[in-house]
Amino acid sequence: MRLNKYLADCGVGSRRACDKLIEEGKVKVNDKVATVTTQVEIGDKVSVNGKRVGTGKKLTYIMLHKPKGCVTTVTDDLGRKTVMDFVKDIHSRVYPVGRLDYDTEGLLLLTNDGDLANKLTHPRNEVSKTYIARISGKLADTEVRQLEKGVMVDGKVTAPAIVKVLEGDAHHTRVEITIHEGRNRQIKKMFEAVGKEVEFLKRVAVGDLHLGGLQRGKYRFLTEKEVNYLKNL
Length: 233
Fold this sequence. Notes:
alpha+beta, 3 domains, 9-stranded mixed sheet, 4-stranded antiparallel sheet
């Protein structure tokens, strides 16, 4: 088995996150520093940062309403609050699927299922994410069409989006926007491309999985039906 898949199955992180750990020399197989091409066989001793890992874990799936003011990482070198501070009582070692910016709130999935995390975050799978944004000023119909067609962000045109104006006046507009890409600060940069500033941003759905009435800073376990839905996206 490829080492990144083995680590993902152990709940260390997504395959891409595990590749990074391997590249940084933090993973050993049978006490030797591993490379991204290392294969794992039955009986091998695998460790990350000196701590041995293994499979046989219980798979855990969680939905968290991430509040603003925390980072979507397992640890933070600057000592900031992370999303893991809200799931401290979870006995399984879970990690966030994808990310939400420090000042963005809403639906965040956490799991120790590396295969599912990889599926939900890989660009080729085009998993949709829906956000509610409050932006400065009035959003014109021409600007809605621009966002839907695609705008230039960091030198590349964004994929088509679904944009619905929910309410607004001359000072603010409340918008629902659905995308399937996951570029850094993408929603905010898309609105900047049409001359608007995002004042508030909340992710409310991943595919057809909705945040609902889950309160900020609270989490719940996904139902079997919800897990199966995500696996079949």
